[in-house]
Design goal:
This protein has 262 residues and is of the alpha/beta class. It is built from ten helices and twelve strands.
């Protein structure tokens, strides 16, 4: 469990976001510490995707405050989020299937010399970082096209690309939605490895089995509001489901909600 005295790597305070007449988020609170896995759960339309957009600078908050490692910051553009140390792996992975593994890992961050792609340096750097081996991709040839990889291997390539910038916070959007049972098990092991490396992880998932397996805490969104913060080890799964469906009203919007589960 994370020490309460340690400032969270990311803290959202009273975040609200409106799209025209639709109030997508209202007074949302969230905290994530280094080396902690926080699961963000909720039904479709609960506001999870909008909250990710706020954190990554795609759709800046209309109201509220964001703190990064204890200091106030403003995230109004994706590059500002990346500069802080925030990386996101979306559900569609955003991989280029015609490129090989190395090409996808360095997509958007290619190494060039004299205006020409330095393929040798990129492959060497990928191997020096030990990302593929450390995350157990099972990929023997880093020059194989991504189209030839399994869903689990593609997922890990996308995560390797996100980790290339050495982020302090990694957001994973429905990472096991397209994975089989064995691939999901390996992926959950990967999350444990990220925790051990001291990376804060925000896991967005509908699969409460995955959440119970790896998350430290669960934050429930319902209709754009917080509807509960739970310690995974001490909270029955039925209570989390009740909060997600609205059977239990745990609406809370203040920092003391997080203090209660720590």
């Amino acid at each position: 469990m994370v020490h309460v005295s340690t400032p969270p790597v990311l803290a959202l305070r009273g975040i609200s976001r409106r799209f025209g007449a639709v109030q997508a988020l209202r007074d949302v609170e969230l905290e994530i510490h280094a080396g902690e896995v926080v699961a963000l759960v909720g039904d479709n339309g609960a506001g999870k995707s909008t909250l990710v957009k706020v954190i990554t600078g795609v759709a800046p908050a209309d109201e509220g405050a964001i703190e990064w490692e204890g200091r106030p910051v403003r995230i109004s553009r994706p590059h500002e989020a990346r500069a802080l140390g925030i990386a996101c792996v979306y559900q569609d992975l955003a991989l280029c299937e015609s490129l090989d593994v190395v090409g996808n890992i360095f997509l958007g961050h290619e190494i060039c010399r004299a205006g020409v792609l330095d393929e040798v340096s990129m492959e060497r750097r990928a191997r020096e970082l030990d990302l593929l081996d450390t995350l157990s991709t099972g990929i023997a040839n880093v020059r194989v096209p991504v189209t030839a990889l399994s869903a689990g291997q593609r997922q890990t390539v996308a995560i390797c690309r996100a980790l290339l910038s050495r982020p302090k916070l990694l957001i994973l959007d429905e990472p096991t939605a397209a994975l089989g049972v064995s691939q999901t098990a390996r992926f959950l092991d990967l999350i444990e490895h990220l925790r051990e490396r001291g990376i804060g992880v925000l896991l967005i998932s509908h699969n409460l089995g995955d959440v119970k397996a790896v998350a430290d805490e669960v934050a429930v969104l319902r209709l754009g509001r917080n509807n509960g913060f739970f310690d995974v080890l001490t909270t029955p799964q039925e209570q989390i489901i009740s909060s997600m469906t609205g059977a239990t009203d745990n609406a809370v919007t203040h920092r003391k909600a997080w203090e209660a589960v720590r």
